[in-house]
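Quick one: structure tokens for this chain, please?
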Amino acid sequence: MKVSELKKLSHRNWNEIKVYDSICVINSGYKHDSGYAVMYIIGMISGTFIEIAASCDDIRWSFPNHMRKGDLQNDMFYQSGVLHYHSNRYNFEVGHSSSTVDVKLIHKPCKSYPSNKARSR
């Protein structure tokens, strides 16, 4: 998806807190009073762009104490240059939309596996 199309996504209510399985960061094209660019954090679920989760000039990350190397990864979509953050172990909880937005990594729910009894049939 092009950056211009991402900018047209609906904006989440500023005071909602939502969880996504990955997020993207783009330049909104606006300048914050701080002098830095305003970023749009785009929430994604199952590879689909859902909404503009927040607008901010600063992201404050919150990491679990027991994170391992490689638990948080980022890449960039070619050709758009959209920065994409993802994890195999964590989801992204995006806080209230304000100048500084809190993004907290929270464990993904465990996948349920059939019981031993069901597997032995």
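Residues 90 and 106 are 5 Å apart (CA to CA).
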